[in-house]
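Collaborator request log, item 7. Partner lab (contact: R.S.) asked for a structural prediction of DUF5808 domain-containing protein to inform their binding assays.
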Amino acid sequence: MEDPNNPSKETLDRWSKDPKNWIYGIFYYNPKDKRIFPPKKEAWMGFTTNFANPKSVLTLIGILLFLALFSIIIQKIK
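Returned to partner:
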């Protein structure tokens, strides 16, 4: 039996490709998946946010706030 805290690569791949874990086909939502940035359905397309994982959502918000703050600082310097 597989450890729920340490799923196998096959399980992680299956979760990423399962249409039931995608809301409207673009938002990944899987409470079992603890990864912050899991791959998209097609791994070559990059990564996405697991909206079921609070750490993932907070990380995304942090990145967006950092980019907004950086943009504001750059504009003030000019």
